[in-house]
Amino acid sequence: MSEGHHHAREKSPSELRTMALEALLVERGLISTDAVDAVVEQFQNEIGPRRGARMVARAWVDPAYRERLLADGTAAAAEMGYGGAEGERLVCVANTPDTHNAIVCTLCSCYPWPVLGVPPVWYKSPPYRARMVREPRVVLREFGLELPEATAIRIWDSSAEVRYIVLPMRPDGTEHLDEEGLADLVTRDCMVGVAVPQVTEGVAA
Amino acid sequence: MSEGHHHAREKSPSELRTMALEALLVERGLISTDAVDAVVEQFQNEIGPRRGARMVARAWVDPAYRERLLADGTAAAAEMGYGGAEGERLVCVANTPDTHNAIVCTLCSCYPWPVLGVPPVWYKSPPYRARMVREPRVVLREFGLELPEATAIRIWDSSAEVRYIVLPMRPDGTEHLDEEGLADLVTRDCMVGVAVPQVTEGVAA
Amino acid sequence: MDGIHDMGGMQGFGAVAPEPGEPAFHERWEGRVFGMSLTLWATGGPIGGMRSQLERIQPGRYLASSYYERWEHALEEMLAERGVLAPADVDRRIEGLRAGGRVPERSDPAMVEAVLADMQPRPPAEPEGGHRFAAGQPVRVRRISTAVHNRCPRYVRGVSGVVERLLAPDWLPENEDLGEQRRAPCYTVSFAASDLWPDDGADHTVLVDLWETYLEEAG
Amino acid sequence: MDGIHDMGGMQGFGAVAPEPGEPAFHERWEGRVFGMSLTLWATGGPIGGMRSQLERIQPGRYLASSYYERWEHALEEMLAERGVLAPADVDRRIEGLRAGGRVPERSDPAMVEAVLADMQPRPPAEPEGGHRFAAGQPVRVRRISTAVHNRCPRYVRGVSGVVERLLAPDWLPENEDLGEQRRAPCYTVSFAASDLWPDDGADHTVLVDLWETYLEEAG
Questions:
Q1: Do residues A110 and A182 lie in contact, with contact meaning Cβ atoms separated by under 8 Å?
Q2: Boundaries of every domain in chain C
């Protein structure tokens, strides 16, 4: 994880400031490079939407887990070994045939790190933060999700300390899939609520 | 008014775009360079805060004019020959020993052009537009104007089609001055309401 | 249109920065932008209102631009929307200028007369009337949320005030976007700062000019 | 703090732009900024909350910066405020890097353990209780206007909604700025879009999590 391999090209101002900051904090003993490495490694390889997808898949196949997940998201995540910063108060909201849920943070970019990883740029961007609470149908349409007029839309603004995750509906034609196969259908966008799980030709029985 | 004298130095992107726009509009017959010259010349030399200052000075020496000015600012300006765009509905608000007025436009930068000219940069800036309605005492203090706690502050947000001008109080020690001498005391800032007329040593009798 | 232009009450912008002895225009091009705009307005040229156009500037660009940069951009947008010239025309013309081209001079006495006439006093406006609310009456500002141009600042929406003064009926800001021409009575409405920002402890009064369509009776 | 961060309902930002196959971090330095922040938090280092710091970024800079650029800037500000290092120290160090200097490696197993522990499930939170409002009860959001950090979005202020769910008491966002440590019950409050933006014609529901101190009984 040394920065040596970057020497060939010009460093950006942000890159230089960050390197300088890291150097100063290391020298003052406030951080260690291996601690920073560990955080980066975790969020690059371990902590991401696959975790949330596994929870969703389990809720699809195990009604008792589904019940626990909706009653106490934090505990249901902890059951799977997921938890920690930005996931201390996890609430799972379930889509139904009548209701579609989606999450946003208008004031910053709060997001359930332990089960979805770090948020994508669009989730943190002014257009999403500004528009999702006000014109969700238009935003969802831009994501390719056209909901029936009759579907009630519920937008959750994570303005306090709860972090939300959407439990999508299990698509038809997935009866043959096991938990891991089901988890493959559950993308990050499905758990943010800007998409719903799709069954492709290859997956459907 | 040709742009030839600028050739010696590098032109800024805004300068180039403006020149290109002017060239195109001239070629399409939509504007003439002498009409643009006339506007610039008027606002550089004729239309400015001296006009408002003359109105204020007259109101100080002529109680009947003061009454007309406060009853119908547009007509009182027209009496002096001032009017036109952004001055079609002029309202003059008078400071008193108990009340201080100031003007702002939070939504853009509306300003009484015919009597004050074009607004200064600070009037058009986000800090003034954002703060003047909310914390006028703090803003006025930054302008060097410390008002007594008991003074009522009234901030006029020019959000529709009326344009405002403040009639400051005539300072003490100006009994010997004629109208032109009084007008010298009335700065633009006094008529926006971020200052009050000052009598300097040289002016006071 | 709830754009970045609606900044009344916003925090974090820092200090106001007056400039001693500030000129009318800091650079020649600023005066030209201003002059072109006034010429087009005075002659019924192919542009609309500046305010509605400025609001549509993307917030990041809005804050990064100076006042006359925003005007210049808005002029281009208005001319493009009306099919007069595309931004690409401007780009091409810039290349011509870089290659030594000049802005052609053109004289038009009638146009000069028109812009000067626009700086003269006008006949008195139409008589006032038709007001639904009376001076002294409490009113509340509706939570106006139209996506089109409006002149109802966010910081007064939902707040009650008192009618300070009746103002003559005026063209609705929404007219241009909605393609109709309608006037409505206007009012100066007086608000207590303590109602607008209760936690501030401020005691001043803010007077805001509002169209009748933005107001409803307050209990 | 009514800063630019409070953008719920604002218009003019354009389209949302998803990026297919987006990585966790686009550039190495983004991960380092994130990792330094989490390390400092996990070890009780000399920084405070990121959210309150981000709000203080000047609006023009805020919109012109990327997410991790804002974090990096906020980190510097927090460290400077606590006297740990000045921006000038960073500038000087950059010169050193330009001259061929490196970021020194440092290993600290206890620190690694601390950051990893911070990514583990925690014991259940304190029991809930002490709520003044009940589920199903109508409440109105106060026009919160504190200059300090708060988490009361502008778009719900002054609007009535219904308590959807009681949430456990939590530390007040104002605590850090006010130098006290107080918790208050929280609520998920449900708002009809037609109450928030009456002119939009939208029919969805917005659910916002609010501290009890931001709420009052609705008639």
A1: no
A2: 28-118, 138-217
D46, D90, D112: residue with CB nearest A34? D112
Report the DSSP beta bridge partners of residue C207.
B156, C190
| Shortest Cα distance, chain A CAs vs residue D219, angstroms | 25
Measure Cα distances from B76 to A182, B44, B117, B141, D175 in Å: 79, 23, 17, 32, 55
- Exposed/middle/buried for residue D127 (C-beta within 10 Å: 0-12, 13-18, 19+): exposed
Cα–Cα distance, D16 to B46 (Å, whole number): 48
Q: How far is D48 from chain A (nearest CA, A)?
A: 14
* DSSP E strand stretches across chain B: 90-94, 99-104, 152-157, 163-167
A158 in active site: no
CATH 1.10.472.20 applies to domain D28-118 = yes
Quick check: is A9 in a domain?
Answer: no
| Dist CA B75 CA B91 (whole Å) | 10
pLDDT in tens, B81-105: 999 999 999 999 999 999 999 999 9
Evaluate the CA torsion angle D126, D128, D131, D135 in order and state its sign: positive
Q: How many CB pairs under 8 A join A and D?
A: 304
Domain coverage including residue A179: 32-204
pLDDT given at position C203? 96
Q: How far apart are the first and last CA of chain B?
A: 44
**Which CATH number belongs to the domain containing residue A46 in this structure?**
3.90.330.10
Total domains in the fold of chain A: 1
In a domain, A50, yes or no: yes
Residue B126, pLDDT > 50, answer yes
How many residues are there in chain B?
205
Would the pTM count as exceeding 0.90? Answer: yes
C36 contacts B36? CB cut-off 8 A: yes
- CATH 3.30.360.10 applies to domain C138-217: no
Assigned domain for B17 exists: no
A108 catalytic? Reply is yes
Best C204, C210, C211, C212 member to test B by mutation, with max B CBs in 10 Å, is C204
Are B21 and C36 contacting, i.e. CB atoms less than 8 angstroms apart?
yes
Closest CA in chain A for residue D1: A107
Local confidence band at A198 (pLDDT 50, 70, 90 cut-offs): very high
Average pLDDT, chain D: 95
Residue of C nearest to B119 (CA): C24
The answer to whether residue D59 neighbours chain A at the CB level (below 8 Å) is no
Round to the nearest angstrom and report the end-to-end CA distance of chain C: 28
| Of C136, C146, C143, C134, nearest in space to C172 by CA | C146
In a domain, B24, yes or no: no
Nearest chain B residue to C169, by CA: B161
Q: Does A136 contact chain D (CB < 8 Å)?
A: yes
